[in-house]
Each structure stands twice: as C-alpha cells, then as structure tokens.
Design goal:
Number of strands: 0
Number of helices: 4
Structural class: mainly alpha
Radius of gyration: 20 Å
Order of helices and strands: HHHH
Distance between the termini: 66 Å
Helix content: 55-70%
Shape: elongated
C-alpha cells in the first residue's frame, strides 16, 4: 500500500526543469533586473544596501550560478552521452552529436547573456527617466 501511494505521489510531482532558450533568456533578465534595480535604488539614496554589499553580492552570485546550472546548462546534462569518450571521466566532442550538443549549449549561454543585457538596458532607460523627473 505504501509503495502504491508513493508511486501515485511521484506521478503528480512537478517535472524537473529543462534548459531551453526561453528559460535562459528569462533567467538572464531575472538576474540582471534585481541587480540593476538595487544599483538604481542605492544611487538615488532610497536604499542603504546595494550590489557592493558583501551579503547581497554573495546572494546574487549564488542565484546566478544556480540558475545558470539549472536553466542554461541543464543539470541533467553535466556528463552527456554525446560528449562521452572511451576514456573514463573525459568528455569531449568526438562526433557530430557532440559538436551539436556544444553548439546548442553555446547558443543557450549567448541567449542568457542577451537576457542579462536586455534587463540591464531596460532598467538603464528607467534610471535615465528617474533622473529627468
């Protein structure tokens, strides 16, 4: 009975997140927006804490690394079959599937960086408007 209940519970659980271009872009914006917003608030004197605070900086770096690992690199593919070689614990592209995997990963990283730049650009415009008024 217990095993049947655990199986039913496992069928209803949320699936583990998969890395995609959309998730990479959203994570990039969600990393840069709060960071830049903290910078704007400290520069305008509305907040005592900014990005230069060690605790805030540690939190931002931790959030960035975790989201990079989960939503950009895809934690399930840290040791992908496409990059596996005959030498244990050595991963390198040896065929077309390996190169395709690396280029898809590079594309997601570039989309992540584009999301960071987009979030910072949108908030830079907000900071400019705040200085005008």
């Amino acid at each position: 009975m217990l095993i049947k209940n655990l199986w039913l519970l496992s069928q209803r659980m949320m699936p583990f997140p998969r890395a995609s271009s959309n998730s990479a872009f959203i994570v990039g914006i969600s990393l840069s927006a709060p960071t830049y917003l903290l910078y704007i608030l400290k520069a305008s004197g509305l907040s005592a804490y900014g990005v230069d605070n060690p605790e805030v900086f540690a939190g931002i770096v931790t959030y960035g690394l975790l989201t990079l690992l989960l939503f950009v690199i895809d934690i399930r593919s840290l040791a992908p079959k496409a990059l596996k070689t005959s030498i244990p614990w050595v991963y390198f592209p040896t065929n077309q599937a390996g190169w395709n995997y690396l280029f898809r990963l590079l594309g997601r990283v570039l989309v992540w960086l584009l999301g960071i730049a987009t979030g910072a650009g949108l908030l830079a415009a907000l900071q400019y408007l705040m200085k005008l008024f």
